[in-house]
Amino acid sequence: MSGLPNCPKCDSEYTYEDGTLLVCPECAHEWSKDGADSSEEEEVKIVRDAVGNILQDGDTVTIAKDLKIKGSNSVVKVGTKVQNIRLVDGDHDIDAKVPGFGPMGLKSQFVKKVGAIAEQ
Asked: Which residues are CB-neighbours of 26 under 8 A, at least 6 positions away?
């Protein structure tokens, strides 16, 4: 039909060009025109805490610096223990429930992993 290859993920024939990428409208898979699969080229983002420890989903961390909460006069104090963190994409790369404050986004540079020695 259009001379473009079928989607390598779902085999849809309705692919289209978007700049240097080919896109499948049915499954939203994107890959480069030269045939290399973009999902194979993506790197896994490594999130590190304030001292260099690698963070993972479900870790327990402590707050390393007093953090003012935007739009409030409240402060999350140093040493507050936050359990069961979840890593997310974005500026605030940790989602967690902070005791006494509820759910909020945290930056990894302001937390320390509990029970870990700095990894280099």
From this structure: 7, 10, 12, 14
